[in-house]
Design a protein that fits this description.
The protein is α/β, with parallel strands linked by helices. It has helices at residues 4-15, 31-44, 63-74, 79-90, 103-109, 111-121, 136-145, 162-166, 192-202, 216-222, 233-240, 245-263; strands at residues 19-25, 49-52, 97-100, 125-127, 149-150, 153-154, 173-176, 207-210, 228-231. Strands 5-4-3-2-1-9-8-7-6 form a nine-stranded parallel sheet. β1, α2 and β2 (49-52) form a beta-alpha-beta unit. The active site is at 50 (proton acceptor), 61 (proton acceptor).
């Protein structure tokens, strides 16, 4: 059975459109809100949705996502509860879903157990920002068994390692647009055109740009160079600025709709 991520990129390519990939921290502000947010984001035009599994020491994340992670952990957003929420979401939608989590979380939970549950509840891919290249083989073997894609991350500094990182990749390549941690930025100083050309030399798997994209205007400027844009901290900020759950949904829907309009032009 083909993975939903592959099918989504195929569908978008045929239409000449780019993917909008928002990120939210699972359990922020709570798991009920996560359930509603996933459905609202899809309705507003999200093509693939990333769910961050909260972690106490998220080294790749900036202050916004760290804060969301802390709140989610305080509210008891454990992997088992997140899996149950995803299972509930899957009764309503076929939108591709991807977990973003740290290596220690999956290691402690048990890799086989984690992948098997991902497959069971309907998770299509996982991103592990701190996964060492050397440890990847074992995880890929287990992920393949359960038809879960391991999405690799490349960065502008990965140059001589890009070939090894993208080898055998499935789903999409997460192209980190800028150095440092996640977080909304007003501009990106990397030469994106040159960077994406380098990545394209080694793989024809779809490429999505993330880290620092904070507005529909930025998404529109960057979509030329990639197959999708990933927006995380800017989405979390919209949640943080809301006074209540209704406003959370309203703020996020409006923002995703703006991103979708920019990427589907």
């Amino acid at each position: 059975m083909e993975n939903r991520i592959g099918l989504k990129f195929k569908e978008l390519k045929e239409k000449g459109k780019k993917a909008v990939i928002p990120f939210v921290t699972a359990g922020y502000p709570n798991l009920d809100a996560t359930y509603d947010l996933v459905l609202a984001m899809e309705e507003a035009g999200a093509d693939i949705i990333e769910l961050g599994i909260p972690y106490s020491d998220p080294i790749a994340d900036g202050v916004v996502i760290q804060e969301a992670s802390n709140v989610a952990l305080q509210n008891g957003a454990k992997i088992t509860k997140i899996m149950a929420t995803v299972k509930k979401v899957r009764r309503k939608t076929e939108v591709p879903l991807v977990y973003m989590l740290y290596y220690n979380s999956i290691f402690k939970y048990g890799m086989e157990k984690f992948m098997s549950e991902c497959s069971e509840v309907g998770i299509d891919g996982i991103i592990i920002p701190d996964l060492p290249l050397e440890e990847r083989k074992d995880i890929i073997a287990i992920a393949d068994k359960y038809n879960v894609y391991l999405i690799p991350l490349v960065a502008p500094t990965s140059k001589e390692r890009i070939e090894a990182i993208v080898e055998g990749a499935k789903g999409f390549i997460y192209c980190v647009s800028t150095m440092g941690v996640t977080g909304a930025r007003n501009e990106i100083s990397t030469n994106i055109e040159e960077y994406m050309k380098v990545v394209a030399e080694y793989t024809d798997v779809p490429k999505a740009l993330g880290f620092g994209i904070s507005s529909a205007k930025m998404a529109e400027e960057l979509k030329t160079y990639c197959d999708g844009v990933i927006v995380g901290s800017a989405v979390i900020k919209k949640i943080m600025e809301a006074e209540n759950k209704e406003e959370v949904i309203e703020n996020v829907k409006k923002f995703i709709n703006e991103l979708s309009t920019a990427c589907k032009k």
